[in-house]
Structure formats: structure tokens, C-alpha cells
Amino acid sequence: MHDVFKPHHWFERACFLFENGQLRELEMLCREILSQDKQAADAYYLLGLALQSTAPHEALQALKRALTLNPQQADYHRQLGHSYRRLDQWQEALLHYQKAVELEPQILSHWLNLIRGLRITRQNERANQIVAQALQIHHDPSLLEIALDLAVLSSNWEQASRLLTQNPELQARPRCLISQGYCQIHSGQFAEAQVSFETALKHLPETWEAWNGLADTALCRFDWEKALHCFEKAFRLRHGPAWNQASASSKPAPLPPKISPTKLAHDHAQLLYLQTQGLLPAQARPLLEAFQNTAKMGAENRKLLEVLNPCWDAPIYINTPQLKSPYLNPNHDYEALEFEFLKSSGWINWDSFLTEAALEALRKCCLESTFWRDYYAEEGYLGAFMDDGFANRLLFGIAQELTEAMPKIFKNLPLRYLWAFKYHSESKGIRLHADQAQINLNFWLTPDSANLDPTGGGLLFYDKKPPENWGFQAYNDQSSQGLIEYWLKESQAQEQKIAHRQNRAVLFQSKFFHRSDPLNFKPGYENQRINVTMLFGS
């Protein structure tokens, strides 16, 4: 046998080729070795590495063959996980990342691969559990940073503060300063929070999360203009300028692991709507055909979906309302509404909430702007969020006028968050939950003519709050539905039903459990139910 085919010789040669990027030569060498020895697991493994960029499916098969020959090799599992990830087959990728961790728990990178995969697939609760396990073996700053970020995302402020206190070295990491800033906002330390976000920006000036943090800090200080400026800055850093406002191209967002038919159908309908209104930017027009093809072929055709990458979650069109105040209907007796709320058990509703001009401007903004995200698409609705494009002078003006009109209710409570949800015609709506705030405002934008059931389609809420010992996850998570329903039954909670009406507002205590009344709206883009929600106070 020639020396190059002796096991140690060919493997050293193969590693040299891989490290120097000579992948074609590596492929040829591995195929030559396999022609001599069909049981050479390392040759299959290295062949898989050589083919990952040019022939990902063949690479996957080579790696699977290597694993069949040597199922206890952690690195085979790691690379097979990477291969599945590149093909957006995340369930399989996570299984192999998990196996690599089990085989070699002493290797930190195995843990990080698994945790990143869980976060990308939005399995934050499990990611938090894996981080806790990893920290028992690796006291590593990168793991601590992830643990801190997950604690903030889940509003576990006690855990986040404990991590910062017990690990002061985290304050040297710019991204940890962002998490620290949010902890400080939660504890009312607004000046300190501003310093944390500004310090993070000195190290990472293009970090949109820090700009969002500055915006939140400004809202807590009722500095509406600064808040809007910071939110707009964050949005541009995250997505690039709106296509209808600048010639510069946006930053393509990576396609998510799973694309919902709800999101695809909505975005296609929205582009068609913009086209009929004469608002579709020229560079977006070729995308209509791509959306049409995906609608025909289905959301599972990944190769077809890649064509949509330049416009996925892109600011193709952003409507920025320029309407002047007043925004609230001035014909209401707000002192009387305030009195009714305070003497009741903590809720009121009233019609003709906004002026006709404000209602029309906000509805146009929601119909035209491409800021709808698919976090809830599997449940039949999309969301637009204050820290991702759904922030403008009209929305902030509504919040400001409302708090000033009802000072006995709001008592200087700042706007903490706002969003809009848009539902397809037969969506079941939002699950049973409570919110982490003090006062909720909810109002609807869709014309009454779209609602096929005038007695429903609105909001159901219950006059009970979660027990004091329930954490945020317990009263806000999908997995808690059975527990919440049982508790409401046992506590004899009274259900209140508010039917959908365009321009109807509902004001209630945030901790009251609530959910959508089942929807039955006409099909069609302009008939989709849209509600806006604002949260005040922590």
C-alpha cells in the first residue's frame, strides 16, 4: 500500500487539506480512501466536511454514514447537527447537538451549539435549563451572558439581578450592560439605566438593542421625542432604511427555521394591497411573483423560499403618520370615564375613542407598513411591536393624551410597551393570560362591516388576578392554560365580554386574565381584525 493510504498518513493529509481550504482535493482524497475501505468512518466524516458548501445533501449522507460506523463520536454528531442546521432541519440538528453534549460534556462549544439552536427555534425555557446544566461544569462568561439575557427576556428580574451581583465581571461585557440597563429600569433606576446603555453603545455603537434600551428609559421619563428618536435609530440599525424613504437597500433578515403559511399569505396580500394603492416601491415589484410562486408551491419548499430572503421582514414600506393633535375624541367627558373606572372593579369600555382623522391615519399605517412579525403566526395572527417599527408620534400622542386626560388612573405611570396584532379571518386569537403591567388599553381599528358576528370578535376578561406567588411564566405562558382555567374556576371568576367595535376602547387592570373572543371576520386583507394594545406601569 502506498504511504498516503496508511491510516495516519491519509488522515494527516486530509486534515491539512481541510485546514487550508482545499476542499476539492479533500473530496478526491476521501473518495479514493473509501474506494479502498468502505468502513473508513473518518473518510466519510471528512467527505461530509468537504461537501457541505457545494453539495449539502450529499454531505449529510456522508456524515450519517460516518455516524453509523462510529455512533459514539461526538464530533460526528456536532457536524451532523451543523449539516441539518444548514438545511433548516432544526429538530434533527438539536438532537445531534444534544448527543454531542452527552458524549463530551467537557467541551463548551457543544453546549453553545445546543443553546444557540434552542434560542433560534424560540425554545427559551429549555435553553435556560440547558444553560443552568452547562454552568455546573463550565463557569464561563459566555454562558453567564446567555443566562443573563434569558433571564431578562423572561422578565425574571430576581435571577438577572442575582447573576449581575454574583458575577461582577459581567459588567465588562457590553451586551451584559444592556441586560443590566433593563434590570435598572425595572427597579426604577432610570439614570443608572441610561448610563448602562450609553456605555454599551461606546463599545458597540451599532447595537440596536442598546438604542431600544435608551428609548425605554426615555419613556419612563416621559421624554416622548427622545424615545421616538431612539426607537427609529434602533429600527434603522436592525433593518436598514425603509425602501419608500431611501434608495439604500435594507439588511436582509435570515429566514426563520420555519415559515408559516399565515405569514406568507399576509405578506403577499400586503404587497398586492400596496401595489393597488400605488405605494409599492419599484425594487419590491419583482418580489410579487416570488410570493405568488410560494403561495402555489407551499411554505415547505425551502429552495423557493430563499428567493424571498431580500425582503423577509424588510421595511419595504413604512407609513409614518404626520397627523397633528388632538388624537383622542375631545367630545368625551374623561373625568366621568375616570370616575366610572375607579368606582368599578377596574375596567371600562367606551366607543369613538379616537378622532376620525387619528383612526384613519393609524389604520392606514397598519395596513401599509411592513412591520408585521410572525412570532404568533401558528396561532393565526401576526404582531407589530414598539421596539421593532411600531412606534410613531401618533401612537405616542395617543398614550400621552390618555394619561393626561385621566391622571387619577394613570398617576404618572409611563408607557411600558405597545403592540398591534393582526388576525386572519378565522383565527382563535390570543390565549388566556395576564400582563406584566398595571393598566392595559386595548382598541380596535377594523370596520364593523368586516365582523360577521357583531356580538363577538372582541375581548373576554375575568375579574381575578393571578396569585401573588405566580411568576410571569405561570400567568403568561402557553403551557399554563390548564392551570389558569382551573384557578379561575376555583376562584369563581366572573367573565366579562366586550364585543368588537371599530374605535372601541377597553381600559382594565393588566393583571386581570383575558383572551380574545373567537373571531369570525370576512376574508380579505382589509377585513383582518387589528387591535392595538398599550401597557402602562411596571
UniProtKB/TrEMBL annotation:
Protein name: Tetratricopeptide repeat protein
Placement of TPR repeats on the sequence: 74-107
Gene3D superfamilies named in the record: Tetratricopeptide repeat domain (1.25.40.10)
Superkingdom of the organism of origin: Bacteria
Endoplasmic reticulum recorded as keyword: no
Keywords, comma-separated and alphabetical: Repeat, TPR repeat
